[in-house]
Specification:
Elements (H helix, E strand, L loop, with lengths): L5 E10 L2 E11 L4 E5 L6 H8 L7 E6 L2 E2 L4 H6 L1 E4 L11 H11 L4 H14 L15 H13 L5 E5 L7 H16 L3 E5 L3 H7 L2 E6 L2 E6 L1 H6 L5 H8 L5 H9 L4
Parallel strand pairs: 3-8, 3-9, 6-7, 7-8
Antiparallel strand pairs: 1-2, 1-4, 4-5, 9-10
This protein binds adenosine-5'-triphosphate.
Length: 256
Amino acid sequence: MTVPIIQIRNLGKSYGTKQVLKNINLDVSPGQIIGYIGPNGAGKSTTVKILIGLIADFEGEILISGKPLRENVIDIKRTIGYVPENAEIYEVLTPMEYLDFVGKLQGMDESLIRQRATKMLENFGLRPNMDQRMDTFSKGMRQKVMLISGIIHNPQIIVLDEPLSGLDANAVIMVKEIISRLAKEGKTIFYCSHMMDVVEKVSDRIVLINNGEIIAHGTFEELKQNSGQSLESIFARLTGKEDIGDSAGAFLDAFE
Ligand SMILES: Nc1ncnc2c1ncn2[C@@H]1O[C@H](COP(=O)(O)OP(=O)(O)OP(=O)(O)O)[C@@H](O)[C@H]1O
């Protein structure tokens, strides 16, 4: 059996007296794509921030490639790539300057950064903008640069928080394909999203969290077995929000 690359054991997190993660247990094998989904405020970003070493104060244990995260955070950070949904990007820089900065923080050689960045920017259609300041960029263009910055160092684990945010249809197709190919190469993908249709298509396993707890876990086929429903309906049912149509009606009643 493959040794899990990520082992999350009894993970808990509180902000003051408010407990936002409770007893999260999860093993992820190399090459797996985990879809981590849950409603707003469920605890997805908190889990991710702990996983990438941004939040050090948590209960339980996380092992990455068998090593405890707490004691090996600097080394482990180099093996993880993170793409946040809304990153503070240094707008006064060009994509190339920004990627050069990020790559050097990861200990990469300048010529390798330039080579990879050029190729990746080019394939995202950003070649004409490579040396333009990013303050003129659209949200989607920035998101493409963020995606590249999260993977340029060729990490073993890639954590994506709503990576498709702001991307146009073609870019969405391309990123889905990139995610699948990275997984086939053995990279492990931890994919947080609200876009159920995409989660359903790209993930090997889906983990649904609500109020800081895992409430369902399995392949999409397993989750759907009992209900025969789409992931969106399963999500609504399990998180107790089956009356969304009523809520939408009530929302619009405000105009009356
Ligand atoms: N720094 C913080 N201090 C206090 N409470 C926080 C902090 N960060 C998050 N929370 C709370 O923790 C809970 C989980 O938040 P988190 O951002 O992890 O959820 P999420 O699932 O990522 O939500 P979303 O889909 O809206 O991004 C929420 O109730 C949130 O208000």
